[in-house]
Amino acid sequence: MKAIEVKDLSFAYQNATRYAIRHVDLDVEEGDFVVIAGPSGCGKSTLIRALNGLIPHFYEGKYEGSVILEGVEVASKQPHELFKLVGTVFQEPESQLLTFSVEREVAFPLENAGIPRDEMRRAVDEVIKRLNLEALRYRSPNELSGGEQQKVAIAAALVSKPKVLLLDEPTSNLDPVSANSLIWLLHELNLQGMTIVVSEHRLPLVVEFSNKLVVMDSGMIADVGRPVDVLGKYADKDIIEVPDVLVIADQLTRAGLYAGDLPLSVGQFLSSTKGLKPVI
Amino acid sequence: MVFRSVHYSYPLSNQEALSGVDLSISEGERVAILGENGAGKTTLLKHMNGLLRPTKGFVEIEGVDTRKAKTYEIARKVGMVFQNPNHQFFAQTCWDEVAFALRNFGYAEEEIAKRTEAALRDFGLWEYKDESPFLLSSGEKKRLSIASVMVYDPSVLVLDEPTAGQDAGQKRRIGEMLSTFKGKAVIVSTHDMEFAVKHFPRTIIISRGRVVVDGPTREVFYGEYWASAGLLEPQVVALAKALGMTAKPITAQEFVKAFEEAVAK
Amino acid sequence: MSWASGLTFVHGDSFLHRLNPLPKIVIVIGFFLAAIYVYDDLFHLIVLFGLSAALIVAARQTRRWWPTMKMSLFVAAVIAALDYAFVGGLWFSVAMGVRFLVVVSAFSIYSLTTPPDDTAAVFMRIGLPYSFVVAFMMSIRFLPLLAKEAQNIVDAQTSRGFNMSTRNPIKLIKNYIPILVPLMVISLMRADSAAQALETRGFGYTNKPSSYGSIGFSAWDWLVTVGSVALIVYATLQRVGLLI
Fold first, then answer.
1. Nearest residue to B67 (alpha-carbon basis) of B15, B6, B153
2. Which residues, including other chains, have CB under 8 Å from residue B104's CB and lie 6 or more apart?
3. Tell me: the pLDDT tens digits for C189-209?
4. Is-contact A24 A221, C-beta < 8 A?
5. Domain segments of chain B: what residues?
6. What are the respective helix, strand and coil percentages of chain B, to the nearest 5?
7. C200–A103: do the CB atoms touch at under 8 Å?
8. pLDDT (average), residues A30-45
9. Does domain B2-233 have CATH number 3.90.180.10?
C-alpha cells in the first residue's frame, strides 16, 4: 500500500479567483522522504493541508480529485480523525504549542483520543526518550528556543504513532544550526521507517536526505524525481535554492573539469571518485 | 554610528543581552550582522534606532548620544524594517501605510503626497495604492514594509532578517534593491550566509552578546568562527578549504573561476 | 510585561506549591470575602494585605510578586483618587485602594503556586465542558505571546516615528489604532494556527477525553480546606451578627 496517493487534485479556496493547486498527481511510498519546493505561492502549503485533511474541512472551497493516505480517503474524514495516521508540524514554532509544559503538550493528543492514563504515560515517556526531550520535560513552551519548540511539536505529532509525518516549512524561523539539527532528526526518523513529507525553501540543508524532490510552480507540479536529477535542471535558474556544491559541479562538468554524479553535499562532492580531474 | 562598551540587560533578567559591544559604522557602509538566535542581534539592532538605550556605555548616531535624544528623533535618521510586516500594517490602504511615517514626522501635505507616490512607484506597488496592505502577497508585503521606511529617506537603513521565509527569487530581488540604496548605510541582521556574502562587504559576527569578529566578509568567512557563533560554514567555503585552495571564493561563481584558473596553471 | 510576573506560575517547592488547587481556591475566596467584610476598615485591610504578603514570602515568590504589586499600586492610587473625587473621605478612599491590593495579592498567591494544568484538572473535576476548559487554558497560555507581539508592534510603529504620548484625549484614543489593528490581525492569525494545531492533534476525536495528570488530595489539603472554610463561615456569621 502506498503511503499517500494524490490523484488529479485541484483546490480553490473559497472566494478565490483561481485554483491554488491544479491537477496534482503524486505518489508517496512508505519510507519515502519527500521534499516539496517552489516559489512562494506555488501551492506547497495547500498541498500539505490537503494531505492531513485541513483541506477540505478547515479550509472550505472547491475540491476536486482525491487524496488517499494509508488507505483512507482523506476528504471523507475530519482532520481530528486522521491524527493517528498522520502527524503535522507547522511553520510557526510557538503557535502550535498549546499547553503549559512539554510533557502535557506531548500528552495532549492522547488525552483527546481518550487513551487511559497508564498507556498514555508509557507512550509519552517513549516519545520523550526517543527525541531526547527528558531535560525539557517540565518546561513551558515560551521558555524554549525555536529549535526546541519545533522538536516538541514533532514529539506531539509522533505520540499518536502515525505512519506519515508532514512538515510545512518547519525551519523558516530557525537559525542554521537549529534547522540543521531538525533536519537530521527527520533523517533519523526516516531511517526508522517514518514516511516524511516536508515543504522547504532551504533546500541545501535537506536534499541530501531526501529520495524524492517535488518542484511546484503556480499550483502545478513542475518536476518530480530524485533530487540530484531534478536539481540539475534548476542549477542556473532562480526558482528554487540549489545547493552551491551542485551549481559548482554542474558548471565544472560543462567545462570538462568534473565528471560523475552531481553532489548534494560537500561530502558527496569530495567523495565522488570519478569526480575531479587531478588539480591544485 | 558608534557603539562604545555597550552593555544591556532586559528588565527582570539576570543575563546581559549585550556584554560590551564596540563598533563603528561609517556613512554608506554595508554591513551584515550574523549570529544565532539569542546571540543578541535584535537587541543590538534596537540600540541603533533608539528603541533601547544601553545600561552601560553609549551609542552615538551621527554624533548624537542616544540617551540624550528622543526615540522618534533617532528613528528619523535610522530607518528600521522589522522581520514580520504584519507587525506594522494597520492602514486601510497601502498609500496610508506608506504615508504614516511622513505624517508622524510632520511633513507638509504636499511633500507627503510627492514622496508617497515616488516610494510606491519605486517599489512597484503603485497599482495597489488604494488596496489594503493585508491582501498583498508575502513578497509585496515585504516591499511595502521597506517602502514605508524608505519614504522618509533615512541616512541609515537597518533590516532585521530581510530574507527569512523568502524564496530564491524574492531573496535576489531584495538583495538587488538594497544595492540601489547608494549613499546610505545599510545594515542587516541575518543568518542567511549566502545573502550576506553576495551583498555585504563587511561582516560582524555576534555571539552571546559580544562581537566575535568584525571585518571584510571574505576574511570572516574563511576564519574559524562558525562553531563558536552557532553558524554553519557555507558550502563554498567548506569545499574550498577541503580542496586546499589558495584562493578564497565566497560564491559558486568565484569558486568555479578560481578552480578553472588553478587548473589552467 | 514584567508586571505580570506575579500572575504567572513558576516551579517551586514550598508548602503552598504542594497544596492541591482546591484549598488554595478556598484561601483566595477567603481573602476576597474578608476584604468585603471589613469593608472600609483601613487597619484590618492592611492586616489582610500583610497576611497575604506573609504567604507570598512563605512560598518564596516575593521577587516575582513585587512587580505585579508595583503596577497594582498605580491602579490602587487611581481607584483611591476616583473614590476621593466622587465619594469623598480620605481614609475611605485609601481603604478602597488597599482593598484592591489585597485582592490582587491574594489572587497572586494562587497563580504563583498553581500549575495551570492543575487548574484545568479542577475545572474538569467540577464538570465544566472540555472545550471550555481547553479554550480558557489556551487563552492564558497565549497571553504572554500576545504581550510580546504587542511590544513588537509598538517597536515597529515607534521606528516609523509614532509617538504614543499626547495630552489630547481624542488623539490618545486614535493613537491606539496603529497598535490595536496589527494586534488584532496577529491574534487572529495565531488563533488560526492554534486551531489547526488543535485539529491535527485530534481535538474532537472523542467526547470523553482522558486526563494525563492526577492530583492527589492529601491530609494537609483536607486540613487547609476545612480550616479555611471554617474560618470563612465564622467570619461570615460574625459579620452578619449571628455570633457574639
1. B6
2. B72, C160, C161, C162, C163
3. 999 999 999 999 989 888 788
4. yes
5. 2-233, 234-265
6. 45, 20, 35
7. no
8. 93
9. no
Contact A117 C214 (CB under 8 A): yes
Angstrom distance (rounded) from CA B24 to CA B27: 10
A265-275, pLDDT tens digit by residue?
Answer: 888 888 875 55
How high is the pLDDT of residue B264? Answer: 80
pLDDT at C76 over 60: yes
**Mean pLDDT score, B99-107:** 92
CB-nearest to A109 from C194, C196, C201 is C201
List of chains touching A (3+ CB pairs within 8 A): B, C
- Within 10 Å of residue C236's Cβ, how many Cβ atoms? 15
- For C:78-137, CB contacts with A below 8 A are 115-117, 134, 137
Q: Is B12 an 8 Å CB contact of chain C?
A: yes
Q: Residue A280: which pLDDT band, with cuts at 50, 70 and 90?
A: very low
CA B172 – CA B188 distance, rounded (Å): 15
Query: Contact C159/B80, CB-based, under 8 Å?
Result: yes
Tell me, yes or no, if A146 comes closer than 8 A to chain B by beta carbon.
Answer: yes
How close does chain B come to A120, measured CA to CA in Å?
A: 34
pLDDT in tens, A52-96: 999 999 999 999 999 999 999 999 998 888 999 999 999 998 889
CB-nearest partner of C2 from B12, B89, B104: B12
Type of residue found at B76: R
* pLDDT tens digits, C203-234: 988 878 888 877 778 888 888 888 888 888 88
Mean pLDDT of chain C: 85
Residues of B in contact with C188 (CB under 8 A): none
Q: How many whole angstroms separate alpha carbon A85 and alpha carbon A4?
A: 11
The subunits that touch chain B, with at least 3 C-beta pairs less than 8 Å apart, are A, C
pTM summary value: 0.88
Whole-angstrom Cα distance, residue C148 to residue B79? 22
Where b means 16+ CB within 10 Å and e means fewer, B40-79 reads bbbbbbbbbbbbbbbeebbbbbeeeebeebebbebbbbbb
Residue B9: C-alpha distances to residues A182, B137, B209 (Å): 30, 37, 10
Do residues A61 and A11 touch, judged by C-beta distance below 8 A?
A: yes
Kindly identify which residue of chain A lies nearest to residue C131, measuring between CA atoms.
Answer: A112
CA distance B1 to chain A (A): 27
Kindly state whether C223 is in contact with chain B, defined as any CB-CB distance less than 8 angstroms.
Answer: no
CA–CA dist C213, A36 (Å, integer): 39
Going by pLDDT thresholds of 50, 70 and 90, the confidence category of residue C20 is: confident
Contact A265 B167 (CB under 8 A): no
Please say if the pLDDT value at position C162 is more than 50: yes
Nearest CA in chain A to C146: A95
Instruction: List pLDDT tens digits, range A176-220.
Output: 889 999 999 999 999 999 999 999 988 999 999 999 999 999 999
Does the beta carbon of A183 lie under 8 angstroms from any beta carbon of chain B? no
Question: Distance between CA atoms of B67 and B76, rounded to whole angstroms?
Answer: 15
Asked if B23 and B3 touch (Cβ cutoff 8 Å), the reply is yes
Residue A140, pLDDT above cutoff 60: yes
Q: Once rounded to an integer, what is the mean pLDDT over residues B107-128?
A: 93
Residue in A181, A180, A173 with CA at minimum distance from that of residue A203: A180
Residue C210 and residue A79: Cβ atoms within 8 Å? no
C182 touches chain B (CB under 8 A): yes
Q: Given A38, A241, A266, which is nearest B242 (Cβ)? A: A266
Across B62-143, where does the E strand assignment appear? 64-65, 78-81
* Chain A hits for C145, Cβ within 8 Å: 94-95, 142
- Which of A47-51, A135-139, B218-222, B244-248 reaches the highest mean pLDDT? A47-51
Answer yes or no: are the C-beta atoms of A125 and A177 closer than 8 Å: no
